[in-house]
């Protein structure tokens, strides 16, 4: 679902800065009920701007991790609800801060950093970091499927985990890293000060401005009310 039918995703740098803003705001105002209202509104706001899938993905993590730590804070503080609310708000801000970044494609971030002439080392690092988790998830699934096919046994057995899961996974990741380095070299991606052009640039549009305005306006209302 996109905001008013717009199909463009959030501008990459705006997504990163939004994540930082959400974390800081959540930490500073965690002990207030207005922070909870803000996070709920932010959840809806992110869905309206095309981050619905990412929002749904972080819900189970927040419920499990945030719920556990909120209960621990409640128990350790002698039944203080404010402490539990504060812990829940902090984890809510943390997981919601992941959403804008999850909606950014690695190639879009690379184009954005290249357009603003960011150091090539930073651009390459961001590309690798953003591409690593999907690759790790995919390779983990393949190794698990191979274990099931061969009847290797349970992954919770330490000996089976080491020989049938960990070693094949590390081997696959090493092979992928070698392929990645060759791919980067073939495409002429260097860390030196060489001239380069960006074929398809990322641009800030009206939806990005509206997203930032809503993000900041909601934070202001949460503080002053």
The secondary-structure class comes to: mainly alpha
Q: Estimate the strand proportion.
A: under 5%
Overall outline: flat
Percentage of helical residues?
over 70%
Total domains, how many?
Answer: 2
Count all strands and give the number.
Answer: 0
Average pLDDT metric: 82
The succession of helices and strands, N to C, reads HHHHHHHH
- Unreliable stretches covering 5 or more consecutive residues: 1-6
Instruction: Give the end-to-end Cα distance, rounded to a whole number of Å.
Output: 30 Å
Number of helices: 8
Largest sheet: none
Radius of gyration: 21 Å
What does this structure look like?
This protein has 225 residues and is mainly α. It has eight helices and no strands. The protein folds into two domains: 123 residues, no CATH class; 69 residues. The longest helix is centred in the middle third of the chain and has 31 residues. The N terminus is likely disordered.
Looking at this protein, list some descriptive labels.
225 residues; mainly alpha; 2 domains; 8 helices; disordered N terminus
